[in-house]
From TrEMBL, chain A:
Any one cellular-component term (Gene Ontology): cell outer membrane
Main location: membrane
Keyword Membrane listed: yes
Name of the protein described by the UniProt record: TonB-linked SusC/RagA family outer membrane protein
Assigned keywords, A-Z: Cell outer membrane, Membrane, Signal, Transmembrane, Transmembrane beta strand, Transport
Organism: Breznakibacter xylanolyticus
Upper taxonomic lineage: Bacteria, Pseudomonadati, Bacteroidota, Bacteroidia, Marinilabiliales
TrEMBL record, chain B:
Record-given protein name: Putative outer membrane starch-binding protein
PROSITE patterns: PROKAR_LIPOPROTEIN
Chief localisation class: membrane
The species this protein was found in: Breznakibacter xylanolyticus
InterPro entries (alphabetical): SusD-like_N (IPR033985), SusD_RagB_dom (IPR012944), TPR-like_helical_dom_sf (IPR011990)
Phylogenetic classification of the source organism: Bacteria, Pseudomonadati, Bacteroidota, Bacteroidia, Marinilabiliales
Amino acid sequence: MRQLIKQCFAVLGFMMFGVLAMAQQTQTVKGKVLDATGAPIPGANVMIQGTTTGTITDMDGNYVLEVPDAQNAVLVFSFIGFQNQTVPVSNKTTINSVLKDDTIGLDEVVAIGYGVVKKRDLTGAVSSVKSDDITKTASSNAMSSMQARVPGIDIQQASGEAGSKLNINLRGNRSISASNDPLILVDGVEYGSTLDLNPSDIESMEVLKDASSTAIYGTKGANGVIIITTKRGKAGKTVVTVNSYLSSNQPTHVPQVMYGLTEVNRRINAERYKRDAILVKAGTGNWGDTKFDAVPVTDVLGGSAVNNLPYSEMDIYNEGSYTNWADQILQNGLTQNYEVSVSGGSESTNFNLSVGAMFEEGLLRNDKLDRYNVKSNIDHKMGKAFKVGTSLLYTYKSHDKRTNVFGQALKMTSIAHPYDESGNIILKPSPTYEAHANPLLDEVDGNFQHNVETPRFFGNGYLEIIPVKNLFFKSMIALDRMEMRDGLYQDFQSVGKLQAATGSYISVENQTQTKYTWENTLNYTTDLGTINHSLTGLLGHSMIQDVLESRTISGNTAAEHFYESSFYDLNNIKTPVLDKEYVKKSMLSYFMRLNYKFMDKYLLTASLRADGSSVLAKGKKWGYFPSVAAAWRVNEESFLTDIVWLDNLKLRTSWGISGNAAVNPYETVTTLSDFPVYYNLDGVEYAGKIPSKYGNDQLTWEKTSSLNFGLDFGVWSNRLSGSVDVYFSNTYDLLYYKSIPASQTYPQILDNIGETKASGVEIALNTLILNNTDFKWDINWSASFSQDEITKLSGGLTKNINGTIGQVVGEPVNIYYNYEADGCWGIGEFDTYKAAWLERHPGETMAMTGDPGTIKIIDANDNGKIDDDDKKVYNRSPKAVVGMNNTFTYKNLSLSVLVYARLGGYIAYDFNGLVTYDSSNWGDVDYWTPENQGAKFPTPGVNTNWSTYGGAALYEDASYLKVKDITLAYNLPQSLISKVGIGRVKVYGSVKNYFTFSNIDNYDPERGGAITFPLAKQLVCGINVEF
Amino acid sequence: MKANLYKILMFSALLVGASSCEDFLEEENKVGQTDDYLYKTTTGLDGLVASCYAYTRTWYGKEAGLGLSEMGSDLFYSGFDNKQKTLNSYGLTAESLDGNASDNPCLDQYWEAYFAAVNVCNTALEYIPQNTLLSDAKKSQYMGEAHFLRAFYYWHMVNIWGPVPYYTSSVQSVSTDATRDTEEFVYSNILADLDAAAIELKESTKKSSRVHYWAVRAFKARVLLYAASWLGPNSITTNSSYAGKNLYEQAQIESKAVIDSDIASFYDNYSDVWTMTNEDVVTNKESIWGVNYSSNFTLNVLPYRIKINSNGDPLDFVNLISRTGRSTGGGNAMLLMFVPKWNNAGKDLSDVFVRVTSLTQTIKNSVTNAVVSPGSTYSRYGRGFTRYVPTLYLVNLFNQVKGIDQRYDVTIRDVYTIAPGLEGSSKFYPLMQDTALYFMAVDGNSVEAKAQMAHAKNRYRIHTLTGGSLPLYTSSDPALALPTSSMPTEDPYGDKRYKDVAYAGNQSFISIKKFETDVYSRSNNDKVTPEIYDRDVMVLRLSEMYLIKAEAELATGGDALATLNVLRDKRAIAGKDNKLVGPVTLSTILDERALELCGEQQRWFDLKRTKTLVSRVKAYNAQASAKIQDFHMYRPIPQAQMDAVTNKSTVAGQGFWQNDQY
C-alpha cells in the first residue's frame, strides 16, 4: 500500500522565499533508493535540501535529478515508514541511499482507508496493534489481541465454546437493532469478525475510530473500521519462521447448583413453608413453627424407586452418592497451533507464503475446531510503470459442535445417578422429574453428531500503473467464496430428542456465499510547486456484489440409532422439511479524499463518499458521507522548539458522517411467511402462506455524525507518550423494530425511528518507566469512558419496550427494563407495609400482596399496585474499560502482565433464574427461610409472584477486573543459536484468564449473563523460531 | 504537463464510467414471495383460504384456549401443574408474558393471533374476487368461508376484551393509533358477515371440514344468544337487519332451523360422540362444524407469530398454544389436560401401574412371572398433566345424574384398572384384581366409605370426596371446597402406603375423560401415550342448539323445559327417566350446559354473557372467589398493545383505553 501515497518531506525551519542560492553549475545525479533488505523503494522522495526541487523514485527505486550547485547541495531521501537520510552531493553523479526502517514513534506508518499515512500526519483517531502483540495472544481469533490494548474498543468473549465469536464494540452503542460490530477488512476487503488467519501472518491491525477516518467507508463505517494488513515479502534473504503453541484449557468460574444436602435442605424448607402456611391459615401456628427437624427427610424424599430407576431418593441420601452434573460434563481441552511461513524475494518479485494448522478443543467432549490455512502473498514488478500482485488465503475449518447441555445439567437434581451399577447410562435419572433427560446422553458415542465444515477462499489480485509521475492507479478484484455444510444428527436418545420422543433427527444445510469486489483508486500527489505545501488526492470507486444461497433439508426419522449413516443418509428422514434462502446485495460506491499539509505543521483532510445500495427502495438508494479533519503539530512551532523535553504535541479535530448499512435485503417489500401453514379441507392438506413481514419502503441508512478532539503528546524522549481523544456522536435515522399496535397485524415494523447520542474519552498512555541496558519496564495503559443515550423515538414515544428490553428516551441505548426487587417479604413485614401505605393513602385500596418469603417488588410510585410504572432501567453498557499492559525485560527474558477491567453495567444473570419450583434443581442461591429472612431469593415453598416478577432478581452488576494474561518469554542468546544457523528463538509460557475478580461468585461476567459454555482458563507454552 | 493532465482525466473518467449501470442496484427477490404474485395463482389462493382456518387451531384443543374458556369459572380448579393459575386466582394483569410457559394467560398472543387471522381473512376477501381462473361456485364458497371465519375470530375477541378495533380490509399501511369499536358495532358486523356467508354458502352442506351453510346458521344462533344475553335482547342498532328485533327470538329461530335440518342427529349411545372412531367432525353425527386436526402432525403446525425477536426472526407461539412446537408438529392437546397423576402411584402400585412409554414395554407379573404388555389398557389414561380439577360443584352435578344419565359414565373417570394379567402381583396390594384406584364420591368418614376402606386393604386405593384418609376436597361446601394439596396425615393401614404428596386432591382426582384416547397415537413415532392427538374439535354440536333454543325460550316465554327434556331424553340411560321438572331458570340451563359441554371451551363465556360469572364463582370456586369482581368480565388488553398506541387514554370510550381496573 505504501507505494500508493506520496508524502513530501523537506527541511524543517524557516525558509525565506526571497533568498535563493546563486546560480551554480547544474549536474545530473542519479541513483537508487533501497530499504535495509536491499529492496528498492518506489515512490520515495528525493529533495534538494532547502529547495522545493525534488523527484520521486520509479518502480525500481531509481531516480534522476538535476542538481544545481552540486558542490554544496545536500539531498534528502525520505519515504514513509523510513527514517530520512541526508547525503551531501559533493559533485558525485551517483548517490544510492539505503533507508532505515522507522517503525517506532511518530514516523510509524499506519493504514487508513485506501492508503497509509505516517502517524505524525494523522488527523483522525486511529490506534494500531503490531505483529509482536498479535502473536502474543494464543487465541483462534487474532482480534482478541486488541482486548485491553486499544482504548475505545470493548471486546468480550461470551462463550467458551471452541471457535466462539467475539463481541466487538467500538466507542459504545449507536444502533439498537442493527449491528454494532465494526467493519473488518483484510488487505482492503471486508472479511467478517472471525479472523481465520494465522496470527503470525498479520503485519498490523489498525482501528479507525473517528468519523473522519471512517467516513471514507460510507455506509459501513459508523461502527469503526479495523484494517488488517497481512505480511508481504521483501527482497533479500529468505526468512523462515515457525510459530507454535500448546494451550491447556480448563473450565473456570462454573456456576454451581445445589448439591447433595443443600438440595435436600431446600426440599425440607419447601415442605416446612407449606406446613407453616397451613398452620398460619388455620390460625393454629406461626411462621417458623414447623421446625427444621420436625420435617423428617423421609417426608420429602421418595423412599421407593420410581420411574423404573435402580435407586430411590432415600437410597442416595443414605449413601451420600449425589451427582455433580456440571463436573460430569466438563473436561479439559487442548489447543494446538502450528504456523510456518517463508518470506523473501528478488528485486522484481516478493513473496510471503505460509501454512497453519490449529486444533482447538472446548470444555465439552466432542467440541472441537480444526482449522487449516494456506496463504500466499506475491508482488511482481513489470517495467517501470506496472506492478501486479495477489493475496490469496484458503481456509478450511471443520467444527464438531455441541449444543448447550449446561441447561440440562444445571436443572437436573443432584439426587440421582448418571449410570446404573453395570455402568449403563440412565436415560431419565431424575426420580422427581421424569422428563429430565440425562445431560450425558449426547456424549454416548454417535448420539449427537454435529459437524460444520467451512472452506473459504478469500483472495484478491491487483494491478498498479504509474502512467505519469506522481499518479498511481490501482485496480483490485477480490473474490470471497465461502461454503458451509452444517450437518446435524440427534439420536432419539439424545438430550434434545429424548423427551420429545419424535424419533431421531437429521438436518443438513448447504450454503454458499460468493462475494465480488472490484475497486479502482487513483492517487495523485503534488506539492503545488512549493516546499510548504503537500497535497494528495484520492479518487475511487468500488462495486460489491454478495450472493448467498442455502438449502436445508431436515426432519425426523424413526426412533432408531443411525449412528453410522449419521446425517449423511437423508433417506432416513420420514417427512423432509425443505428450506431455502437466496439473498443478493449489491453496492456501488464512489469516494474521494484530499490531504493537505502546510509547512509540515498544519494538516487538513477532507473526504466524501457516495454509496448506492440494492437493499433500499427506489429513490432512497443513495447516501452521502462527508468528513473533514484538521491537525496542528504544535511542537513544530518556533515558540516551542526551545522546550527540549517536549518531543511531540499535536492537536487534532475532526467531524464526519458515516453510516450503518443495517437494512437487510427485502426489508422494503411486504413478503409472505417463509414456511407454509397447512389446513386439511376436503381431505387435502392445503399449504398456505400468509403476509407476515411488513415492507417499509421509506427505510434509509442509519447515520452517525461525530466530532472528535484529540491530543497526542510525547515528553522526555518519549519516555511518556500517549494520546487523549474526546468524542461526541449523534446517530439518527436509527433503525429499529418500532412497536405497532398488534391490532394492526404487524406488531413491529422496521423503521428509522430515533436518535441516539454518545460521548466518551479515550486515553492511551505509554510509560517507559525503566530503560537501562539490561532492564526495561514499560507500561501501556488504555482507558475508555463512554456513555450513550436515546435522544428521540419516533411518533413522540418516550418508550418502546419489548418484554424486558427496549428503549427509553433519556436512558442508555442498551438496557433492561424491569421491576426492582428488594429481597423478600419478611414475616409480618407486609402487614406493616400495608398499614403504613393505607395511612399514606386514606380511602384507597391496595392491590399488592406480600406473603412471607415471596419476592418483594418495589412499588416505585407508591400507588399500591405493581405496574409498568414501577419498572427501572438497568444500563447494560460499562462505564469504563481499562487495560494495563506491563512489560518487564531483563536481558533476554521478558515478562508481560495484562490487566483488564470493565466497570459498570448490568447483566441478566441466567443463573438467578434457576429458581424453578417444578422439581428441577435450583442454583445454589441464598433463599428465604424464617431464619434467613434477609435472603435475596424467595422460599422454595411457594411460587407466588415469582413467575411474573422473578425477572427482577436476575440483574447483577457486571463489573470485573481480570488478569487476562501473564506471559514469560525467553529469547535464546544469539551466541548459542547463530552457530546452528538460526536467527532467533523465543520460548514463552502464559497463563490466561486465571484471575478474575467480580461481585458474582463462580462466574466470569465477561460471558454476559449466559450460563451455557463456561470460559476456559488457559495454560500456554509456545515457541517462535526464525531461520 | 498537459499530456499528464489528460492522462489523469482519462483514468478518472475510467473510474467513474466503469460502473454506472443502474441495474446493478436492482433488488432481486427470488424466494421471499409477495402477495400480489402468489395470491393471483389458484394454488396460492387455495392456500390463503386454508390459512384463514389455520388460526382456529390456536384456540381449540389447546391448553391456553382451554384455560381462557374454562378456568376462573364454576367448573374447574387449577390442578397441581396448571400453567395458567392466574386465570383461576384472578391475578390477571395486562403484562405481555410472551414465551413464559409457567404461568401465562397468553392473552397477548391471542390478541396477535386473532388480528393476524382477521388480516388473512381480509386479504382473502380482497383477492378471491380478483381471481379469473376459479369457477364462480368456488369463489362463492371461498368468500363465504372467509366471511364466516372473520366473524368467528371477532366473536372470540369481542367476548374476551369487549370493544376491539374492527377491520374490514387488510393492513396496507400501519399507524400507531387504534380505535376500539363498540361491542354493539362488532356484533353488528359479525352478524352481517354471517348473513353474507349464508348467502354465499347457500348450497353447501357438511361434507368436509369446510364451513357450510348450516354451520353458519348454527354459529349465528350462538352469536345471537350471546348478544341477547350480554348486550340485551334489543341491543343491535347498527345492523339494520337486526335493529329493533328481539335477539332471543332470532336465536330461537336459528337454533330451531338447525335442529330441524338434517345436518346432525343424536347418537343413541352418548359414548359414540366421544369415541376416537368418530373423532372426525365431518363424520361425527352430532357435530355441525369443528376444527380439523390432521393425523400427519407435522402439518398441524401453527403459523409463526408475526411478532419478531430482536434479530427480526418470527417468534413461535408459546407451547401452551403451539403444544409441541414447530419441529415436532402440532395437534390437539386435550388428552393431557384433565388427566390426574394416576400412574404416579409411588411405593404401592408402581410395580404394576406405570405409564407405558412404548408399544413394546412390558411388566412382569411377580407372582406368575407372566410378561404382560399393558399398553392397550393404559394408553387411554394418557399422561397425567394435572391441569384441571373438577370443582366440587361439577362433581356433585354429575353425581346427581349417576345411574340415570349416560353422561356420567362417558364424562367422569372415577376408576383406574390394571392390565389384565397383572392380578395379584402388586407388592402392597397382593389381592388386587382389576381396580387399582377408586374415587368415591362420598365422605371418607361415612359408614359406606369406612366399609369400602376396610375392604380395599391389600386390594386397591380409595380416595373419597371429603374427610377420611385421602380426601379430594377440603370441604363439603362447594363455596369453600378446594382440592387438597398436602400429604395425607392419616394412615389407615399403618404401613405408609398412603403417604405421598401425589395422592393429594390437586394431583389425584376425579377427572373428565371424554377427551381420552383409546387408540395409539397415529403420529409417526407410535407412542402409546402421546402428547398430542388428531381428535378434531367439535365447535358446534347439535346439543348446543337445544341449549340455545331452551335459553331463548326461557327469555321469550317458550317451553324451555320441553326443549331441554329432548336432550335429557337422548342422554338417559336406556330405561331410565332423567327428565327435568320445572320450573326452568337460567340456573337450570347453566347446570345442563355444564353436564353437556364441560371442557368444551365455552363455560367462562357462558357465565360472562349471562352475568353470572361473579356469583357462580363465589358459590362454586373457592380458588377464584376471593378476588373476582365485576370488572373481570373483561380481560385486560395486552400491555404490548397499550405501549404501542399513541392515542392512549385513561377514559373509557375515548382514544384507546385499557379495560377498567387493569
